[in-house]
Amino acid sequence: MAGTVTAMLPDGRLHLQDGPIDLIIGLDGTRAAVAEAARRAAAAFEGLLAGLAAELPLLRRPVGVDPPPLRGPVARRMAAAVWPFRRGFITPMAAVAGAVAEEVLEAITGIPGLLMAHVNNGGDIALFLAPGQVLRIGLVPSLERAAPEGLVRIAAADAVRGVATSGWPGRKLLPRHRGCGDRSGRDRGAGRCGGDGDRECGRRGPSGRAAGAGRQPRPRQRPRRAAGHRRGRRAAARRDRRGAGRRRGGGREAAAARADRGRAAAAAGRDAHGRGAAAAAGLLTRPPRRIA
């Protein structure tokens, strides 16, 4: 495959890369099933980017009242993913990463002996779980620490077949929801979803917003200063006041010392004046000397 990178990573995962598309594929099952899945995934990946590039002008247009006339399987999958949200401004490109992951995953799910597969396209992950299989996913709330601080357990009996993380802290869409307007599809099995892919899910989230509706951006607010920051500023102000008081006190002490020195000098001057006056009086009362 010209221009395509195909490699097995040291941990056994498959790496497929072509231009901006970078897939990491995890496979679990019999040795023959894993080898066949890797071969099929590489075959499905070939020419995928070129097909998307050929329809890029249509994929960048907002979805209107009529479905866009797309021909490629990945492009049609992208349009189907965003179709329930066409009342707002959205283009099929919102689902490009998930659609690519789904397309490659679909090519390997029917292999006998394959127990589990996950296709990660830059953070949008499509999942396959055979009956009885369970996948554990670590949650990383802070990219600075880059360490899992939570765990999600997805079983084959669950409706979830995708994980969307590439838009953090925004939102991305995965095409396959098992008929649910909510992109995760997790509530269909619990009876809280109408199951109509063309209608937004009626489930309400913790904030009271419909799950299928896109989140509105929050207005930017000035960050609140922490209590420790305020306490630090008050302590610095107190230190400044004490320093100013010490400076004023030092000025008064210096002035008093100068006054004491002035008084001492005046007293010394008076003493010298007294001694001079006494000496002058002695000269006046001394008998004059004879001059030969």
Question: How would you sum up this structure, described in words?
Answer:
- There is one protein chain.
- By secondary structure, the protein is α+β, with helices and mostly antiparallel strands.
- The protein has a domain at about 5-120.
- Helix content is about 35%, strand content about 15%.
- The chain contains six helices and eight strands.
- It has helices at about 30-45, 50-55, 55-60, 75-80, 95-105, 225-285; strands at about 5-10, 15-20, 20-30, 115-120, 125-130, 135-140, 150-155, 160-165.
- Strands 1-2-3-4-5-8 form a six-stranded antiparallel β-sheet.
- Strand 1 and strand 2 form a beta hairpin.
- It starts with a strand and ends in a 7-residue tail after the last helix.
- Residues about 175-220, about 280-285 and about 290 have low confidence and may be disordered.
Number of strands: 8
Strand residues, percent? 15-25%
What pattern of helices and strands is seen along the backbone?
Answer: EEEHHHHHEEEEEH
Q: What class would the helix/strand composition place it in?
A: alpha+beta
Shape: elongated
Number of helices: 6
* Mean pLDDT value: 76
- Gyration radius, in Å: 42 Å
> Low-confidence segments, ≥5 residues, pLDDT <50?
176-218, 280-286, 288-292
Amino-to-carboxy terminus distance? 141 Å
Strand arrangement in the largest pleated sheet: 1-2-3-4-5-8
Major pleated sheet: 6 strands, antiparallel
Helix content: 25-40%
